[in-house]
Amino acid sequence: MVILDIRVPDGMKLTDELKAVLYDDGSAFEEISGILRDEVEGTLRAGDFIPLKPATLEKKRRLGQPDTPLTATGTLVRTLQSGVNQKKHRAFVRRGKQEVYGFFHQFGAGRNEKREWMKLDDAVEGRIVSVYQADLTDRLEKFSARVV
User: CA-CA distances (angstroms) from residue 123 to 4, 16, 108, 120, 135?
Assistant: First the structure.
């Protein structure tokens, strides 16, 4: 999880106009949401997870499904949802509500091995921070030019 915290020095009051500039982060979050979705889809499609148990492999072969974990029908990838929650100022990617097995594999619940398919490495987190910083810098520069 990437959390950006904007702090204002003690005693400084934010004008309503500056608050609007700081919270106008929708375009950055749209781009970040796309990064998140691409990363999760790539992880799922790569299928680089803990190998399946022999009995599971046999069952998948009988059903004509691929040998890689979390790819039997492609439903998990197809039902991924991503977007922006403007109210909470958050970008998100999540599994489809009906894809419960994705949750079980993410955390290793029941008979399912833990196969983290929703994860971000340092490079992706760095890209996300860069996108937000560039967007915020641009917004603040435009605000400064109007104020001066």
Answer: 16, 35, 25, 8, 18
Q: Which of 37-41, 73-77, 109-113 has the highest mean pLDDT?
A: 37-41
pLDDT of amino acid 7: 67
The first and second tokens of residue 125, run together, are: 């987190």
Burial of 6 (0-12, 13-18, 19+ CB in 10 A): exposed
Four-CA torsion 63, 106, 4, 35, nearest 10 degrees: -10
CB count within 10 Å of CB 44 equals 23
* Residue 146: pLDDT band with limits 50, 70, 90: confident
CA pair distance 33, 93, nearest whole angstrom: 7
Contact by Cβ (8 Å): 107, 114? yes
- Phi, psi (5° rounding) for residue 20? -60, -40
pTM of the predicted model as reported, rounded to 2 decimal places: 0.74
**Helix (H) / strand (E) containing 85:** strand 81-85
Q: Is 97 helix (H, G, I), strand (E, B) or coil?
A: coil
Helix, strand or coil, per DSSP, at residue 120:
coil
